[in-house]
Amino acid sequence: MVEQTGSLRRNGRMRNMRKRILIDASLLKHLYVDKRLSTREIAKRLGVSQATIQRRLKRLGVARNLGEGQHAVKSRHLREFDGDPLTRAELLALRFTDFSSIKHRRRILFTTSTTHAGMIKFAYEVCGPHADIRCTPVRRKRKIDPNVRCNKWEWGIRCSFDDSYDFLLIPKGAVDFSREFSWMDDEEEQLFLTRAIECDGWISIIVDRYCNKFKFRMGFYNSNLNLANFIRRLIERHCRTKTRIHGIRTLNENIVYNITCDVKRRDLKFIEKLQWRHPEKIWRLELALELCDEKITQEGLDKIKEIRGKILELRDKTIELAKMVFASRPKGRRPIPIEELIRLLGI
Predict the structure, then answer these.
(1) Which domains are present in the chain?
(2) What is the pTM of this model?
């Protein structure tokens, strides 16, 4: 309700003209706290300016930021950490590979970015039961060559955990993994190894022309030497195979440590029993179970080509979808639930 008050001059013009805007305090609290509307949405609904709504909220003593009021309501649905060591092991594997973590008010934000549809489905499978996940299309700019700038589209993944998952805030610096992870038993070590390979590792079928056979090769790469050595020990202990490690200098003068191992058919049964969640790794593993140590045939080569084509096709679709959503939505409306993104990608 708006009232106009003032006093008339002799020439008939208004002096000290002002508006008195009457807003019901209970209605304002209901819209802001219970309905969780923003000040902009409330202002639009009541037909006043956003500044007016903010002044009224301040005068009434209603919390204006998410940390004091509205955020507490939004955080109630987040699941608290139940102390399960398996959950802790697999989330820590993500923390030390692809994901970064920060504490934001009462939440732990777990973030990464990717152009692979398989990684999006993997994040949903692993983090979905514990966190609220949203994906945002972003445009990245990375230098591949000093004279060339490459613009690509990708999806940023943000997982919001309850603050009881504070173990995810462990720094990525010089960590003694053998000491810090001494609480893990064999099952938890195997789960940590699996998740680490799914994030920063690879599985491939090698065509060995010299032996005229298909070979299964698995690897892991990371710039943290302590982590690379820890993963190497886990592979040799649980997979019972020898590994090789070497450093590769990248274009930005960093060193990435690459671990590789050739897996025999007799060891594939153990690897098959691991709890894989990454779709692209699962496709390659299923093909490895079929072709490992078999003679090279044209049918086998066609199957390898088919898997590679399927992965590249999904990657191109993911990039195009990020570009389309980025262009079609305003800045504040670009994040979408990960379930919707998986449905759009058809995986």
Answers:
(1) 2-75 (no CATH), 85-176+333-345 (3.10.28.10), 187-314 (3.10.28.10)
(2) 0.73
